[in-house]
Amino acid sequence: MIRSILITASVLALAACNAPEPERAATEAVPPPVATPDAPAAVVDANALTPEGWGNIRIGMTRAEVEAAVGPDASPESVGGADPAACDMFHPERAPTGLMVMVENGVVTSVWLNRGATVKTDRGFGVGDQAAAIKIAYGDAATASAHKYSAAPAEYITAWASGGAAGYVQNPAARGISYHIGIDGTADHVAAGGPSIQYVEGCA
Predict the structure, then answer these.
(1) What is the domain extent for residue 89?
(2) Rounded Cα gap, residues 100 and 97, in angstroms
(3) pLDDT attached to residue 119
(4) For the residues of 152-185, what is the DSSP string, one character each?
(5) Does residue 136 belong to any structural domain of this protein?
(6) Are the C-beta atoms of residues 190 and 180 closer than 8 Å to each other?
(7) What is the pLDDT of residue 204?
(8) What is the pLDDT of residue 43?
(9) Minimal CA–CA distance to 144: which of 117, 118, 179?
């Protein structure tokens, strides 16, 4: 009798050892994927305005190169600057609405977005966006300065990607983006490129 009980206990123990492991509970937490150094970087919108320009319009191009890429001035009768030979702003025929190109001494120095533009910067901001959101996104990478003509909340928010410094930047190799904020706290203009993004009256 005792031997029979021992054999039965042994069979049960062996069956328990060979039983399949119970499935994990459906609610068991699954650790999130770990980021790796070789993970692909976020892709910047190919249509975005960057410190180097927009689309086929690149800082440092000649006016002739711009016209070959996106067309001549859509409004040649308009005055883009007091001395067009020294500085001119124009809207190429095949450029998006509201996009202007600044050319100084025959070379592109910045690309501007005016009211009506739908193009955004590589940070996702454009004309009409709130200054508060722009500041949060850029953090310490951007600096704010007082507006030349209007009281706060009007201001300039400028972020240099390279070659920038405190104060007024004159380094022709500097590249950045400046948001010109109006009295309603939103961007009236956005400029990307070299030191001319600091101009407050177009070619001035």
Answers:
(1) 49-198
(2) 9
(3) 98
(4) TT-EEEEEEEES--SSS---TT-EEEEEEE-TTS
(5) yes
(6) yes
(7) 74
(8) 52
(9) 179
